[in-house]
Write a structure and sequence with these properties.
Blueprint lengths: L1 E4 L4 E4 L7 E5 L10 H19 L4 E5 L6 H6 L4 H17 L16 H13 L3 E4 L2 E4 L33 E6 L15 E3 L1 H13 L2 E8 L3 H14 L4 E8 L2 E3 L2 E2 L10 H18 L7 E2 L2 H17 L11 H10 L4 H14 L2 H10 L4 H4 L5 H15 L3 H13 L2 E6 L2 E6 L2
Helix pairs in contact: 1-7, 4-5, 5-6, 7-8, 9-10, 10-11, 13-14
Bound molecules: zinc ion (ZN).
Zinc ion (ZN) binds next to loops.
């Protein structure tokens, strides 16, 4: 299998199965419900893990939660820890609804501060860190590779985190001294404070995956400065660190990047309520992971219609597939994990009636539910709609009676936020 690598500008091979394949994906900073753009790396990493396991690899996926950060302090002055805990729970609740399982490890930045401090001390030992009024900075000028990941010449790197305490405008914070009003802090050799965002990921990746690992992922917007800085810290401390850097394209809305700061973001929670997990997954699957993707009603309507076509196919009889069909899926996914081509192939199998192959392939993408459902008859749907209305009116006795009637008709009603799903009973 080959994956496009931002660092080498090439599709680089993975080692042969069983690997291991160790993957670290940057997770969200938790201070509100995550937006649908944050769901994309979560989905891509979960699919990639499922596909690699399907093809015989031993895979470990780590996806962190950043729960200490300026954004969190700003969003809840004096109560940042409570907000971070609540928002982390929302993130887990919302991503659980995608039905793709959890990463193998989901470390929180605040639980690994000891490892982060130890790594900063190593950087001091190598002359790559210096202290300035309670802050600690990375000395970019001492790391000749700096700028390679983001394609910048070392002498022309953009300034980051401007302030007069730094030796060089390119330097970035490893540790930030405590400021009044910040309610979360740790003691360190440099006084009270908290880690910089970048050192958190360098430390967590190494803690769970070791000093070298196969894939580091995240959104394209993380290449600079976040990943450039992670790379500088870890390579600067003598680790090989990530071999392949996998950056997914951004979600757009009406041609502009979806971003919290632009106010055009849609929460994953709201998107799941509006469209359900199958439609969202098919929406993501229809684009190559490195392309940007427009979150438009028409694109989602199309994904929803596709979900319906897959469901319908399982209402009819299947046909045995000829030898070698599965290999076509292997070919497109092993070529830079092209899910868009895989989806086209799945529709071809659907038209041909290759239901066994289709069932197996849909399961890789967390879409098993499409293979289980047949359409509920109209009288059962009507019962479920009456029950939904009773629930909204908080008439739970009536809602329970209607559930029993639906049960007797051979269907199970499952509540999803603001809606329901009818599943045939075994
Ligand atoms: Zn990160």
């Amino acid at each position: 299998m080959r994956i496009y690598n931002t660092l080498t500008h090439d599709t680089d091979p993975l080692p042969p199965a069983p690997g291991p394949i160790r993957m670290y994906f940057c997770g969200p900073t938790v201070y509100r419900r995550v937006h649908i753009g944050n769901a994309r790396p979560f989905v891509i990493s979960a699919w990639l893990r499922r596909w690699l396991r399907e093809t015989g690899y031993d895979v470990t996926l780590v996806e962190n939660i950043t729960d200490v950060n300026d954004k969190i302090y700003e969003a809840a002055p004096g109560h940042s820890a409570e907000l971070a805990a609540r928002a982390a729970a929302w993130y887990i609740e919302d991503t659980d609804r995608l039905g793709l399982g959890r990463p193998d490890f989901e470390p929180r930045a605040t639980e690994t501060v000891g490892q982060q401090i130890a790594l900063i001390e190593e950087l001091f030992g190598r002359g790559l860190a210096y202290e300035a009024e309670g802050d600690v900075y990375f000395r970019v000028g001492k790391f000749p590779e700096y700028g390679r990941l983001s394609g910048q010449r070392p002498d022309q790197v953009q300034e980051q985190e401007p302030n007069a305490r730094k030796e060089d405008p390119r330097d970035f914070a490893l540790w930030k001294g405590h400021k009044p009003g910040e309610d979360t802090w740790w003691d360190s050799p440099w006084g009270r404070g908290r880690p910089g965002w970048h050192i958190e990921c360098s430390a967590m990746a190494e803690m769970f995956l070791g000093p070298v690992f196969e894939i580091h992922g995240g959104g394209l917007d993380l290449i600079f400065p976040h990943h450039e800085n992670e790379l500088a810290q870890s390579r600067g401390a003598g680790r090989e660190f990530a071999k392949i850097w996998m950056h997914n394209g951004m979600l757009e809305m009406g041609g502009a990047d979806m971003h919290k700061s632009l106010g055009n973001d849609v929460s994953l929670h709201a998107a799941l309520n509006a469209w359900g997990p199958e439609t969202l997954l098919l929406f993501f699957m229809g684009a190559h992971w490195h392309s940007s993707i427009d979150f438009s009603d028409s694109a989602l309507e199309s994904a929803r219609a596709q979900a319906g076509r897959f469901r319908e196919a399982f209402g009819g009889p299947g046909v045995a597939a000829p030898e070698g069909e599965w290999e076509q899926l292997v070919a497109v996914l092993d070529d830079d994990f092209n899910t868009a081509e895989a989806l086209a192939l799945l529709h071809k199998w659907r038209s041909a009636g290759y239901l066994d192959l289709l069932r197996r392939a849909l399961a890789v993408f967390g879409l098993e539910s499409l293979t289980l459902q047949r359409e509920a008859p109209p009288d059962v749907v009507a019962l479920a709609e009456r029950r939904q209305a009773a629930r909204v009116a908080k008439d739970f006795a009536q809602s329970d009676r209607l559930r029993a009637e639906i049960d007797e008709a051979g269907w199970e009603v499952r509540d999803t936020a603001g809606a329901f799903r009818l599943v045939p009973r075994e």
